[in-house]
């Protein structure tokens, strides 16, 4: 199982490395050539970034499904990604803060925290006792924010640098090597913390009352994980916009196929699979019609959506 | 006998509309099975849940005595991860005893085996919770609760959606597995047959008031049942 997972990741990586504008592989190690620059200064940093972006999205999705006790919970569907995206789009259009930059990331974090805060408020208020309402509330928030974003982009389409696709569907930027390494370190650190504390999620997946008899406070667990995940998410979204479906499909796939015995195992398997999935999607987005690049969110939804439907169709 | 549950001047329910019209005060002393009876909305489930969720207590207190504070709980409509195997589900009963990165010890695994054998569920242990029948699943949750070795076991209408056979298996499993000397069982149920045959104590609620709190035997007469459930059900019950 681990071997096949490893080779899956490797294959996805090689595919994404190969995909795009053709490279003369014989000249790849010549530091003065354009091929060297393409491979080592553009593609490799990008692929490192993409892998950890996928890992983060998959784990955040898996965590949300337990926190909200809802199999449809996912950062995009709950409106948290869209909240961050909208805040950054407003920043770029109204305040001239180009994304990705530190200022834009701070704005994105504010957006993500605002939506998460609203979801938390609902969770802690008495209405939130019914978990379906949280998911539906998130879905409603997502609709409203998406419409606002769409309206904003329709008005200002000409002035926005990267075009509106990046904001609407999610797109991988060309990150520099230091940016990429920093993101990889931050994401792996955050995911390690999530992994270490995953016992509390084991208890919470049986509901708040049972979690309490097992010695874990449902409230504290939610507070901790929602803070951690919105930090990671805001950082990620400031680069990519919202990428849908990955956080839904990968954890479901892992649950069905591997039947993980604990949440820690679920996260541990979801992370590399999410990374590989996004690497593959990135390869497709650059390889279908080079040098054009499709928004990666379209690819993840095109692959993830049908796969999710198949998973739903089959009985557990 | 020491008091294990103390309800003191408690006003229970969510926010503006409490379920109890006047503060509730009573104590539970005896070990064994205590059954909470009453119509829907009478306050029995609210009482049970307020033991676990202090946000449901608006005034007063609902307290388990400190020496009995090892609890286990089987909720009315359990949420559960559908992919988890029955065996892994039972293993989670040991979460409080394990360190952050510890796995089940051989002794703990044996305990799981023993309980699986006792519940005659060995053949199901590799199955996912989502693929079990509702009756099997509910027994699995009872098994997990028992593995927690609770001093107080809380069951919230555990047989609500089960067919008669599954109900029979559930109650039998409960009776066979619980040593009534060590465990106090608090059950909400509408299953009067179970209550009559197995309960040691009965607390009956009507519109948020405790109207009957005594040994089980004294409950089963027309007047008392009629007071709690109405004339029709009472006459019907006595006829049987």
List low-pLDDT spans of chain A: none
The largest sheet of chain A, given as strand count, sense and whether it forms a barrel, is: none
Helix/sheet category of chain A: mainly alpha
User: Order of helices and strands of chain A, N to C?
Assistant: HHHHHHHHHHHHH
> Could you estimate the helical fraction of the residues of chain B in percent?
25-40%
Q: Indicate the radius of gyration of chain A in whole angstroms.
A: 19 Å
Q: Cα distance, first to last residue of chain B?
A: 35 Å
Note the total helix count of chain B. Answer: 8
Oligomer description: heterodimer
Total strands of chain B: 9
Distance between the termini of chain A: 20 Å
Strand content of chain A: under 5%
| Strands ordered across the widest β-sheet of chain B | 5-6-7-3-8-9
What does this protein look like?
The complex is a heterodimer of chains A (316) and B (240). By secondary structure, chain A is mainly α. Chain A has helices at 2-18, 34-67, 80-95, 102-124, 131-156, 165-169, 177-196, 199-204, 208-213, 218-240, 246-258, 263-287, 296-313. In chain A, helix 2 (34-67) runs parallel beside helix 7 and helix 7 (177-196) runs antiparallel to helix 12 (263-287). In chain A, 50% of the residues are buried. The mean pLDDT of chain A is 84. Chain B starts with a strand and ends with a helix. Chain B has 240 residues and is α/β, with parallel strands linked by helices. The radius of gyration of chain B is 18 Å and the shape is globular. Chain B has eight helices and nine strands. In chain B, the strands form two sheets. Chain B has a six-stranded mixed beta sheet with strand order 5-6-7-3-8-9, with helices on both faces. Chain A binds chain B through residues 66, 69, 126, 129, 131, 196, 199, 202-203, 205-210, 212-216, 255-256, 259-262, 315-316, and chain B through 14-15, 49, 52-53, 55, 71-73, 75, 78-85, 88, 91-93, 95-96, 98, 100, 128, 130-131, 145, 148, 150.
């Amino acid at each position: 199982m681990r071997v096949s997972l490893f080779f899956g990741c490797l294959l996805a990586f090689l595919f994404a490395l190969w995909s795009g504008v053709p490279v003369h592989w014989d000249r790849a190690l010549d530091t003065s050539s354009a091929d060297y620059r393409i491979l080592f200064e553009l593609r490799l940093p990008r692929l490192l970034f993409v892998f950890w972006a996928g890992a983060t999205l998959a784990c955040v999705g898996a965590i949300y499904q337990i926190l909200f006790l809802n199999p449809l919970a996912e950062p995009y569907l709950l409106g948290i990604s869209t909240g961050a995206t909208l805040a950054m789009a407003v920043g770029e259009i109204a305040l001239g803060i180009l994304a990705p930059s530190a200022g834009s990331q701070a704005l994105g974090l504010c957006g993500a925290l605002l939506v998460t805060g609203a979801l938390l408020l609902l969770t802690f208020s008495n209405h939130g006792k019914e978990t379906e309402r949280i998911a539906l509330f998130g879905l409603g928030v997502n609709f409203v924010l998406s419409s606002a974003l769409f309206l904003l982009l329709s008005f200002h389409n000409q002035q926005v640098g990267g075009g509106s696709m990046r904001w609407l569907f999610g797109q991988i930027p060309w990150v520099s090597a230091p940016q990429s390494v920093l993101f990889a370190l931050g994401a792996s650190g955050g995911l390690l913390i999530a992994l270490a504390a995953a016992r509390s999620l084991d208890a919470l997946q049986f509901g708040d009352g049972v979690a309490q008899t097992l010695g874990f406070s449902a409230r504290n667990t939610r507070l901790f994980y929602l803070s951690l995940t919105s930090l990671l998410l805001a950082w990620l979204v400031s680069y990519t916009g919202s990428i849908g479906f990955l956080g839904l499909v990968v954890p479901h796939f892992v649950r069905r196929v591997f039947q993980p015995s604990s949440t820690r195992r679920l996260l541990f398997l979801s992370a590399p699979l999410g990374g590989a999935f996004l690497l593959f999607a990135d390869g497709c987005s650059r390889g279908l019609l080079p040098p054009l690049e499709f928004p990666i969110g379209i690819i993840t939804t095109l692959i993830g959506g049908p796969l999710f439907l198949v998973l739903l169709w089959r009985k557990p | 006998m020491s008091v294990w549950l103390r309800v003191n001047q408690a006003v229970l329910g969510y926010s503006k509309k409490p379920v109890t019209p006047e503060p509730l005060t009573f104590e539970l002393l005896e070990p064994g099975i205590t059954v909470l009876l009453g119509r829907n909305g009478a306050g029995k489930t609210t009482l049970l849940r307020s033991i676990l969720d202090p946000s449901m207590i608006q005034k007063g207190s609902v307290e388990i005595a400190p020496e009995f504070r090892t609890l286990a709980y089987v909720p009315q409509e359990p949420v559960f991860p559908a992919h988890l195997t029955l065996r892994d589900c039972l293993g989670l009963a040991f979460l409080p005893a394990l360190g952050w990165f510890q796995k089940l010890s051989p002794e703990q695994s044996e305990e799981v085996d023993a309980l699986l054998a006792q519940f005659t569920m060995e053949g199901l242990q590799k199955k996912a919770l989502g693929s079990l029948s509702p009756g099997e699943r509910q027994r699995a949750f009872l098994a997990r609760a028992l593995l927690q070795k609770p001093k107080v076991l809380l069951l919230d209408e555990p047989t609500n959606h089960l067919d008669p056979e599954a109900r029979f298996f559930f109650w039998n499993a409960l009776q066979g597995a619980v040593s009534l000397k060590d465990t106090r069982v608090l059950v909400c149920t509408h299953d009067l047959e179970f209550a009559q045959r197995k309960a040691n104590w009965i607390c009956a609620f009507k519109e948020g008031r405790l109207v009957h709190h005594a040994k089980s035997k004294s409950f089963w007469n027309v007047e008392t049942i009629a007071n709690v459930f109405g004339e029709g059900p009472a006459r019907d019950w006595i006829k049987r």
